[in-house]
Design brief:
Layout: H1 2-33, H2 49-59, E1 63-69, E2 73-74, E3 79-87, E4 93-102, E5 107-109, E6 122-131, E7 136-143, E8 152-162, E9 166-172, E10 184-187, E11 195-199, E12 201-205
Parallel strand pairs: 1-11, 2-12
Antiparallel strand pairs: 1-3, 3-8, 4-7, 4-9, 4-10, 5-8, 6-7, 9-12
Length: about 210
């Protein structure tokens, strides 16, 4: 008889513990939060795959070269300045090669070479020529051996005169990264070409 009473008491105690645990799990979080309502904690949303690739792309070599005109529009027979701008995309370079061309039926070149004033980072220009008869432009620059250049800079400019109305271009010759006979930017020490994009110059002529 005493054994049966003991078993019953143990069973009641276990049931009490379970009930107490469930009550604590239900009401204690609400008591600590000071509210009778459950608070939902938002979880961070999923990372978009496109965002990862976009940031990764920005971390890659992203050298650029472009031609900017000093004005948005001009007229036939008016003089206009074209500027050559480089951007190393965070890398350091010690040299560049610019290969460009223009249609001689659209433009007349007013200078035989690129004006390099204002580009102090480069100390030597092994090649600098504009051929008016063919519209070919070749321009190369080197930094000091103990230094390099990183950032964005106008490395030179030249003067043109428009011969006819329309949207006229000066094109940069770029056949792909690492091709040796076109426009390129040479990374310091290794000489690796870091150029990935060029933008041609276009001007509206009336």
């Amino acid at each position: 008889m005493r054994k049966d009473i003991t078993i019953i008491l143990v069973s009641v105690s276990l049931v009490g513990l379970v009930v107490g645990y469930l009550a604590a799990a239900t009401y204690l979080p609400q008591w600590f939060l000071g509210s009778s309502e459950l608070v939902e904690v938002p979880s961070p949303g999923p990372v978009e795959e496109g965002e990862l690739f976009e940031r990764a792309d920005q971390d890659q070599f992203a050298g650029q070269v472009r031609i900017d005109f000093s004005q948005d529009k001009t007229q036939v027979d008016q003089e206009v300045k074209a500027e050559i701008v480089i951007d190393t995309g965070g890398e350091t370079i010690n040299g560049f090669d610019i290969v460009a061309e223009f249609d001689t039926e659209e433009w007349s070149a007013l200078t035989p070479e690129i004006d390099t004033s204002g580009s102090e980072a480069f100390v030597a220009y092994p090649r600098n020529e504009i051929v008016p008869q063919t519209g070919k432009i070749r321009f190369s620059g080197l930094t000091d051996l103990d230094s390099g250049f990183s950032g964005e800079m106008t490395i030179g400019s030249f003067l043109l005169r428009a011969k006819k109305p329309g949207k006229l271009e000066v094109k940069l010759v770029f056949n792909g990264k690492g091709v040796g006979d076109d426009t390129n930017l040479a990374k310091v020490s290794s000489g690796e070409d870091i150029l990935v994009e060029v933008s041609h110059g276009m001007l509206e002529v009336k």
